[in-house]
UniProtKB/TrEMBL annotation:
Pfam family membership, one: Por_Secre_tail
Leader sequence residues: 1-17
Organism of origin: Chryseobacterium pennae
Transit peptide in keyword set: no
Name of the featured protein: T9SS C-terminal target domain-containing protein
InterPro entries: Secre_tail
Top-level taxon in the UniProt lineage: Bacteria
Every Secretion system C-terminal sorting domain range: 160-219
Record's keyword annotation contains Signal: yes
Keywords: Signal
Length: 228
């Protein structure tokens, strides 16, 4: 019984892990996913994320081995994407990207469609082919989503109903979507899965959310809805 109880605690803890998945700058990092795990919170209540594995276990062509960190730089009031100098300590890390135009009031960093993640060409020599965008990279998970942007993309004939909703949202007028995401009003990603025209929202707490639908051509559509 004690063993079963401990196992339940471990499983419960792993379910609440906060991660960021990144893929970009293929010339230096190759075309592969990097998983950032939240490792703590700084004195300014900003989350700190670090890739795992961290001990030279994820090779990439341009830098030899890739070990990354995303953290807040309060002195410069910006989020930074850092590369380790090679020892896994981040004592004198390389600044690869920085974003100073996102919503800096939140504890999570902006995604690649929020503000501008600027390439630090002094370090990369321009090999990342410019700033991070939704067209040249993916940055998903515990990040500020496009819900924080004011502008919404034209939704053409796409409709969602009912709204407000209790259990399931129906999506009509779409046939080439690939991903469905739900964000809360603060921009935190709540749910991400393969698109289905019937979206289960029964486990969401009451409040306002954003349903984001990502098409196969990477165009996206956003819809506000209220969970009853």
């Amino acid at each position: 019984m004690k063993y079963l109880y401990l196992l339940c605690l471990v499983l419960a803890g792993s379910a609440s892990a906060q991660t960021i998945t990144f893929n970009g700058c293929h010339n230096l990092f190759e075309n592969q996913n990097f998983t950032f795990n939240k490792t703590g919170v700084d004195t300014f209540n900003k989350n700190i994320y670090m890739t795992t594995p961290i001990n030279d276990q994820q090779p990439c062509g341009g830098l030899g081995n890739c070990e990354f960190k995303i953290q807040w730089n309060n002195a410069l009031t910006r989020w930074e994407f850092l590369g380790d100098e090679g020892n896994g300590t981040f004592t004198t890390p390389y600044l690869i990207y920085y974003n100073s135009t996102g919503n800096n009031s939140l504890s999570i960093p902006p995604g690649n469609a929020i503000g501008t993640w600027i390439e630090n060409t002094t370090v990369t020599n321009g090999d990342c082919n410019g700033n991070l965008t939704a067209a040249n990279s993916t940055m998903m998970g515990d990040v500020q989503g496009v819900t924080l942007g004011i502008q919404e993309i034209s939704k053409s004939k796409i409709q969602i109903f009912p709204n407000p909703v209790s259990d399931f949202i129906q999506v009509s007028g779409i046939n080439d979507a690939q991903v469905m995401q739900i964000y809360n009003i603060d921009g935190r990603l709540i749910k991400s899965e393969v698109f289905d025209s019937k979206v289960d929202v029964s486990k969401l707490t009451p409040g306002m959310y954003i349903l984001k639908i990502i098409m196969r051509n990477l165009q996206s559509h956003e819809f506000k809805f209220v969970k009853k």
